[in-house]
Amino acid sequence: MARQLALPLGFKPELGFDQFWPGPNGEVIAHLRRAALGQDESLIVIWGDSGTGKTHLLNASCASASRSGRSAAYLPLSLLKDHGPEALEGVEAFALLCLDDLQTIAGDRDFETALFNLFNRVRDNRGQLLASATLPSPQLDFVLPDLASRLAWGLTLRLQPLNDADTLEALVLKARTLGLELSPPVGRFLMHHARRDLPALAMLLEQLDRASLAAQRKLTVPFVKRHIGENS
Questions:
Q1: What is the pLDDT of residue 4?
Q2: Residue 163 pLDDT grade (very low, low, confident, very high; cuts 50, 70, 90)
Q3: Where do the domains of the chain lie?
Q4: Phi, psi of 155 (to 5 degrees)
Q5: Residue from 157, 162, 138 nearest 149 by CA
Q6: How far apart are CA 219 and CA 16, in angstroms?
Q7: Over 60: is that where the pLDDT of 43 sits?
Q8: Strands ordered across the beta sheet of 72-76
Q9: How confident is the model at residue 231 (pLDDT cuts 50, 70, 90)?
């Protein structure tokens, strides 16, 4: 367990359900909220394109579980892979495990075997597993048939991308968490003059927050335009 504690298993409590704009994904979030409290399915896999919020929702699930008194761990498989398959040993002790980026270990037989064995240990402990991927599990290039079969036992849910109106609402919500007032004209300007994916827009919003504090200025279209121009 001492070795496990050195691994990146922590979650970000600031990434909560209330900080996530659901858009067309209300049903997915409802399932995850219940799962975080020990209800719903024991295995749920969410999948969707990069930038649809999978990492945020897994962190939100951990945060919700922790607030309810359940032990929870967030496991970014893209990082844990560097530690080898033994990184998954002992983590079944958590009541809720959230595994991010299943696709990053697809094709690695040793890691797939370790993950399959982890699923069995979690089931024996009556724990819950939430996992994410960029594709539904049948389309991932697993070399271990038993792992693909085990994933098929769970509930698979797709995260839909946000349309323009929902992306704007998500930006306004992100700004509110930063203590910023983001007017619709400024939000639309950002959407049309920066990268359109939400993580990139959220990062830009954080940069603008720091810049506006330093300049003691509100976010206006001219201010944002100048900032983007200076940093392009």
A1: 42
A2: very high
A3: 2-158, 164-230
A4: -90, 125
A5: 138
A6: 25
A7: yes
A8: 72-76, 96-100, 128-133, 43-47, 155-158
A9: low
178-202: pLDDT as tens digits: 888 899 999 999 988 877 788 888 8
CA proximity to 221, closest of 186, 170, 171, 184: 186
**Which is more confident, 230 or 113?**
113
- As a whole number of angstroms, the distance between CA 21 and CA 7 comes to 30
Q: Where are the alpha helices (DSSP H) in the chain?
A: 2-5, 26-36, 54-67, 77-80, 109-124, 145-152, 164-178, 184-193, 198-215, 221-230
CB 98 within 8 Å of CB 104 = no
Written as six digits, the tokens of 138 are: 């049948």
CATH code: domain 2-158 is 3.40.50.300
DSSP letter string over 32-82? HHHHHTT-S-SEEEEE--TTSSHHHHHHHHHHHHHHTT--EEEEEHHHHGG
Single-letter amino acid code for the residue at 179 = G
Give the HSE-up count for residue 57: Cα atoms under 13 Å, Cβ half-sphere. 30
Q: What is the mean pLDDT of residues 152-157?
A: 92
Kindly report the CATH number that applies to the domain delimited by 164-230. 1.10.8.60
Place of tokens 């050195």: 6
Neighbours of 195 (CB within 10 A): 13
Strands 155-158 and 43-47: parallel
> Which tokens in the block code for residue 135?
């594709």
Distance CA 140, CA 40 (A): 25
